[in-house]
Amino acid sequence: SQRTILVATVSGLVTSRCPSFSCSPFNDRPMCRICHEGSSQEDLLSPCECTGTLGTIHRSCLEHWLSSSNTSYCELCHFRFAVERKPRPLVEWLRNPGPQHEKRTLFGDMVCFLFITPLATISGWLCLRGAVDHLHFSSRLEAVGLIALTVALFTIYLFWTLVSFRYHCRLYNEWRRTNQRVILLVPKSVSVPSNQQSLLGLHSVKRNSKETIV
Ligand SMILES: [Zn+2]
Ligand SMILES: [Zn+2]
């Protein structure tokens, strides 16, 4: 809004000094309101009800903004864009699951799982074999003790796996919800042709200068 006021003030000054609108710098080059670049790299769109310098935007800039802000409407005029949201693949999350600490936790838990699974399996198998041997030599107490140990080992292993899995599932679902690929469903005709852009610029100067007077 500070920028809007500045633009309004500057354009007000320009229009009050110039007899015609031709010398206003805002007429010459319409730019994207997010990256402030012109239409040389990518066509500018005017997809919402905003006009003037705030009315033009690149498709990619808008899609990126809608994706990162997790909204589907213009933050200024509250126009609701027609968008299609596509969830990103799981591989992308595994590669970059978010903040640094989440990345570390996911990596650590995956390494732990890969180490603990064979370890738990081997220990369980050895315990059971020991129990069978003890039963064979009719020392029941040791056999029962070893079976109890195996059960305890597997309970702890399953509990840890379940808790970690649920934790990462929750993080993944949250990531999936907030990191969707946004595709703007704007027909090509909405894209602003160059002669109309200068008219839009003119309109904004008029509008802004009116705002300055008020
Ligand atoms: Zn842009
Ligand atoms: Zn708008």
TrEMBL record:
EC numbers on record: 2.3.2.27
Residue ranges of the TM segments: 106-126, 146-167
PANTHER family: E3 UBIQUITIN-PROTEIN LIGASE MARCH 2/3 FAMILY MEMBER, E3 UBIQUITIN-PROTEIN LIGASE MARCHF3
Protein name: E3 ubiquitin-protein ligase MARCHF3
Membrane topology note: Multi-pass membrane protein
Keywords: Cytoplasmic vesicle, Endocytosis, Endosome, Membrane, Metal-binding, Transferase, Transmembrane, Transmembrane helix, Ubl conjugation pathway, Zinc, Zinc-finger
Presence of the UniProt keyword Cytoplasm in the record: no
Domain RING-type: start-end pairs: 32-78
Subcellular location field: Cytoplasmic vesicle membrane; Early endosome membrane
Function as written in the Swiss-Prot or TrEMBL entry: E3 ubiquitin-protein ligase which may be involved in endosomal trafficking. E3 ubiquitin ligases accept ubiquitin from an E2 ubiquitin-conjugating enzyme in the form of a thioester and then directly transfer the ubiquitin to targeted substrates.
Keyword Membrane: yes
Pathway: Protein modification; protein ubiquitination
GO CC term, one of those recorded: early endosome membrane
GO molecular function, one term: ubiquitin protein ligase activity
A Gene Ontology biological process term: endocytosis
Domain RING-CH-type, residue spans: 24-84
Signal peptide boundaries: none
One Pfam assignment: RINGv
Major subcellular location class: membrane
